[in-house]
Amino acid sequence: MTVSLQTGDFDIATEMDALSKGDTNIGAVVTFTGLVRDMVKDERILDMTLEHYPAMAQAELERIEQEANKRWPLNGTRIIHRFGTLKPGDRIVLVITASSHRQAAFEAAEFIMDFLKTRAPFWKKERLEKGDSGWVEAKDKDDAALERWRL
Amino acid sequence: MKLIYFAWIRERLGIEEEDITLPDTIKTVQDLLTWQQNRDEIYEGAFADADTIRVALDQFHAERDDPIEGASEIAFFPPMTGG
């Protein structure tokens, strides 16, 4: 289990290899990568800046990772979240889950992303091509996505 | 006690954090939000939309009726939009 918050980019293959190397009990690795989109509604985006609460972002993502490891038999998890200014097409977030079988890896990756979206303290501010900028508003569907994970 | 602010709350207040001694009458997260709204016009503006503001006590998400006693760092921020 490792969480990294960083300004720099990441390499998915390197991270995946690092997570699964030496553990031949792993039969499934799921990777999720979130990217910056260039359009929101009808507005073209120049870039976005991710603000975060460093100590809590680290702690909260570790708590989410621990919860995923309680719920599924995982051999490894990896979370990387970038902060600072990013452009359309840039990678923002990486979640990797490894398990003996695919169902646990798929479900745990979705669980981690659903909780990350609504509970990890990051905030996006978009700068639009037409000149203004603004904070991205949270989506109700992200809150709704948590409901299916309740016991 | 340290109070810290993020995103549009930080922008509206014009500060990232402040060290403050709170009145003894403030017991819960809700008490603290109400107190913030009544400090001055700038705080009133930043905390006008208090229902949407999230609060964390020592880096844990908190509910409105949670006691703030013992917390050393209290953070205020909008709903999160990472990922």
Describe this structure in words.
The complex is a heterodimer of chains A (151) and B (83). Chain A contains four helices and nine strands; from the N terminus they run βαβββαβββαββα. Chain A is of the alpha+beta class. Chain A has one domain: Alpha-Beta Complex (Aldehyde Oxidoreductase, domain 3), CATH 3.90.1170. In chain A, helix 3 crosses helix 4. Chain B contains three helices and five strands. Chain A binds chain B through residues 34, 50-53, 55-57, 59-60, 81, 92-93, 113, 116-125, 135-138, and chain B through 4, 6-8, 56, 59-61, 75, 77-83.
In short:
The complex is a heterodimer of chains A (151) and B (83). By secondary structure, chain A is an alpha+beta fold. Chain A has helices at 12-20, 54-71, 102-119, 140-147; strands spanning 2-6, 28-35, 39-40, 43-52, 74-82, 84-86, 91-99, 122-128, 133-135.
Kindly identify the CATH topology of chain A: Aldehyde Oxidoreductase, domain 3
User: How much β-strand is present in the residues of chain B?
Assistant: 15-25%
Helical residue percent of chain A? 25-40%
Supply Rg of chain A.
16 Å
Q: Characterize the largest beta sheet of chain A: strand count, sense, and whether it forms a barrel.
A: 5 strands, antiparallel
Topology pattern of chain A, helix = H, strand = E: EHEEEHEEEHEEH
**Into which percent range does the helicity of residues of chain B fall?**
25-40%
Pair of chains with the largest interface and how many residues each contributes: A-B, 28 and 16 residues
The number of distinct helices of chain B, counting runs of at least 4 residues, comes to: 3
CATH hierarchy, class of chain A: Alpha Beta
Strand order of the largest sheet of chain B: 2-1-5-3-4
Q: Tell me, rounded to a whole number, the average pLDDT of chain A.
A: 95
Which architecture of chain A does the CATH hierarchy give at level 2? Answer: Alpha-Beta Complex
Determine the oligomeric state from the structure. heterodimer
Mean pLDDT of chain B: 97
Which structural class matches the secondary elements of chain B? alpha+beta
What series of H and E elements makes up the topology of chain B?
EHEHHEEE
Unreliable segments of chain A (pLDDT under 50, ≥5 consecutive)? none
What's the number of extended β-strand segments of chain A?
9
Shape of chain A: globular
